[in-house]
From TrEMBL:
Organism, scientific name: Sphingobium algorifonticola
Superkingdom, natural source: Bacteria
Record-annotated Histidine kinase domain positions: 20-244
Assigned keywords, A-Z: Phosphoprotein
GO molecular function: phosphorelay sensor kinase activity
UniProt-recorded name of the protein: histidine kinase
Amino acid sequence: AQDALRQAQKMEAVGQLTGGIAHDFNNMLAVVIGSLDLLKRRLGDTDARAERYIDAAADGAQRAAALTQRLLAFSRQQPLSPEVLDANKLVAGMSDLFSHSLGGDIRLETVLGAGLWRTHADRNQLENALLNLAVNARDAMGEGGRLTIETQNVHFDDRYVSENFGVPPGQYIMIAVTDTGTGMPAEVIAKAFDPFFTTKAVGKGTGLGLSQVYGFVRQSGGHVKIYSEPGQGTTIKIYLPRFFGEALEAPRTALKDLPLGD
Ligand code: ADP
């Protein structure tokens, strides 16, 4: 429990620091990108070589901006557009995307829980988070393997929570992403959510995938946990709060009350 507290405090501090820097960088990059755009217009098509230089500079600035977006996601400062979601539909809708990013040697299996509760979250960000997890899983399964995506309603009562899960009591939808890859030693698990922590080769990993997942899930009022051991594969569980509102209830209008078409 002491460790968990220290970990939470560390993530909070790192989040504030990176968030501040990312925010300022974002503003500066907006100036750079805007000015390059003006410069390019000003130039018209008078100088093809100069235009290429400007494009290269703009490209670099865009990539830097994408990176600061990921840092803002980690520090929970990104603007979210939450909506009421059926995670089963979302996962099912992503299967082509998953298969495409996994490659041929990896089998995709989805186990969608029946009567899954709804959650209130940003659709794009959740898709992005699941894609990040799938790509990590793929990277951990060099020889091929199985990626399982499972959804389930989870109701934590206090006893359960204090004993094991480190997730506050409540009702959640859980999305678990499991791979049969290399697994992670304890030292890697301890740092996996840190921004820029990566064990991948230079140019292969940014160390921002899991930090982005962490930031998004926390900003959505949820929790994310890693279960892994070297040689045993990895499971990452995302818990998102159950949505209790009625906003998306199917319309109750009886057929006979519907206006007749003309
Ligand atoms: P990146 O993928 O760019 O390295 P991440 O933040 O997504 O950054 O992951 C950080 C590190 O956590 C990875 O470099 C890897 O060591 C470890 N990791 C993440 N997911 C998995 C997984 N499914 N299996 C094994 N190790 C993983």
